TrEMBL record:
Family: Belongs to the PNP/MTAP phosphorylase family.
Pathway in which the depicted protein is active: Purine metabolism; purine nucleoside salvage
A single GO molecular function term of this UniProt record: purine-nucleoside phosphorylase activity
Function: The purine nucleoside phosphorylases catalyze the phosphorolytic breakdown of the N-glycosidic bond in the beta-(deoxy)ribonucleoside molecules, with the formation of the corresponding free purine bases and pentose-1-phosphate. Cleaves guanosine, inosine, 2'-deoxyguanosine and 2'-deoxyinosine.
Protein name: Purine nucleoside phosphorylase
Amino acid sequence: MTDATASTDSSTAPSFDDPSGHSPLQGNHPGFSEARRAAAALTQLTGVARHRIAVVLGSGWGGAAELIGKTTHTIPTAELPGFAAPSVPGHNPTVRSVRLNRTGSEDGAGAGHALIFGSRTHYYEHRDAGAVAHTVRTAAAAGAEIVVLTNGCGSLVPEWAPGTPVLVADHINLTGATPLVGANFVDLTDLYSPRIREIAREVDSSLPEGVYVQFSGPQYETPAEVRYAKAIGGDLVGMSTALDAIAARHAGLEVFGMSLVTNAAAGFSGEPLSHAEVVEAGEAAGPRISALLAGIIDRL
């Protein structure tokens, strides 16, 4: 349900049956119609005709929602077409409509609204890349220009201890899946926006960047798999983001990715991995990375 103060102004809502207006989601690829239905539902529930930015919050990043702007509506994602309640402990199954702060703007112009997804659909939940893509496709149908993808991950770089935020410069998709169907030859050169990465370094010049490797999960990687990921150019390992990013580029969005190192990857620390420790590491780093992410979004 929406907040008690929610209001609806359907007269401002664009038609999501027709991919026109502000939406970059063009064509009729499988999954696009359902994304348009979800976006139309968001417009009806929030009264906001266009959400300019979308943010997907991974492990450890939940606190950023409070700093990005004023939440005007909070909606359980399971109430929207095409979404199901997440099955992962510690994930927040809501989407917020947020009025952006935009304090960095000289004239306050262009602030607009953002969609903040408190969780994502992981590939390991359904083995369905289309279900994974539904979040970013809904964002595109809602008029977003930019999607910010965050995650918690394991580090292959000894210097990147738990609590370190890392810019995603590129990815390697080891899931064996894709959200694309048919002859959609999408160029992934500079998939992770160099423009926004430069903005991020203006906010914090110490931010490192690396290559994220997505495994299918839900099991953690073996030490041998981690060594393989390192050998092929990976710096970070996890179970999300790459499929989301592919779908976002296909949908016409500018993509920015940030990882939070929550643990050393298997075989690097000599300690067993656990989801509880990942959540704890994210909570410990939460205030710092939330402020960092809000500072970057404030400049977009």
